[in-house]
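WARN  no MSA supplied for this record, continuing single-sequence
INFO  ligand: manganese (II) ion
INFO  echoing inputs
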Amino acid sequence: MTEVKLLFSQDAAIQENEDLKSFSKQVQAGSGAAVFSEGRQWYVMAVKDGKTGCLETIRAMAGTAARELSRGKVFSATLDVDGLSNGFPDVSPEEAVTAFTEGWHLGAYQFLTYKSKTEPFCTKLTIEGASEKAVQTGEQRAEAVSYSRDLMNELSDVLNPESYPERLKDLFKDTDATVIVHDKAKLEEMKMNGVLTVGRGSRYAPSFVEVSYSKNPSKPLVALVGKGVTFDTGGISLKSGKDLSDMRMDMGGSAAVAGAMKLLVESGADVNVVALIPMVENTPDNTAVLPGEVIQYKNGHTVQVGNTDAEGRLILADGLLRAGELKADYVVDIATLTGSIENALGSEIAGVFGDEELASKMKAIGAKNGDAVWPMPLIDAYDETLQSDYADFNNISSLSFAGSITAALFLRRFVSEDSRWLHVDMAGMMQKTSNSGYYPKTATGYGARLLADYVSEISK
Ligand code: BES
Ligand code: MN
Ligand code: ZN
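INFO  complex generated
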């Protein structure tokens, strides 16, 4: 049973040991490496210059260490809280402990459901001298993000609009949250025509889940709307490409909402929040919606389905209308909405549209908690490009550019005037293509922390 002692390269213990001192100089800044000295195993982490004030650096270093040591089946690893503080003098020890713990568990994350020969393994972390509460917070945050990752990684035949509501019922069973599932008959009654239309071609009936957690009903009501497309083939406007497997993660927005709710509920946050999750599978069939059909929304809007692959906005529209019915004071929707956002911002940062004051607040939250996001413009001039020859408007723009903006402008038409709204496009953040920091290859679990912290912040 191997035991490893974790050290940061600035640690005093290194200066006292010639072996470690010379070894630590070899460790590439920003990564870690193992060495045997004085009869025991060490793992030295080298912090990049100028990165000692950054919680994300702590998470990333912890994640890399956890993945490497867990892969090596190292039984346990210990770190002194003083070593951590010395390595990161610019952050409080509590925040450093939470970040290290969080990054550790996220770095060791694996999705093994379908690996018949691999057992899960995570090197046990002990931070000596750490506050219990700080460790627990880190674990809780990692669990919420891991829950989102599990949902995203799950296969589309296992997690579909009929089974997904059951998962959420299970998750919030015996908690202070209430789960209501609207089935297809109820959706018809509620005139959720976007969800019903997009879900028409699938063998799974569409659904709509509402999770409410009103710990403090006197707080402003925050609605979190998450895109729950359990697979996006594009529908009749079929996607092309060799492997569409990743489109099982097109429910990433809903996974973020579910993870955020888990975190809020488990930490007993003093908030008033409701999650609204439309669930569909977007697939072609002889019953599927055809391009050119018109959807009648319950607020009176008629929408031409110019492209069945622009399905996310069609179902989010019903979610936004529902938020209006519930008189939410604040609304955030989050979705893997457009390929364009990845062209604009890449795969390290998501885009946020809407209320500029709140968007800048969200940007600051993301910069601190690891779910990076950047404010994007809602240009009024592009709004008219959603025009339709025979319906009130179209679900696609006539422009061949600015696809993320026009998608956001489409959504804005469904937001109640009485609420303050943000829209997060996380399509570029859906997954990583290689292991890096505390991210394993595949689903990121992006957005769970962002939404939970945002809800807490505006409920203060
Ligand atoms: N789910 C996709 C967006 C997406 C693309 C997410 C890549 C993650 C990775 C969305 O439903 C979609 O198909 N959007 C279209 C919109 C277009 C038809 C207006 C797109 O971005 O191409
Ligand atoms: Mn699509
Ligand atoms: Zn989609």
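The mean pLDDT is 97.
INFO  checksum written, moving to next record
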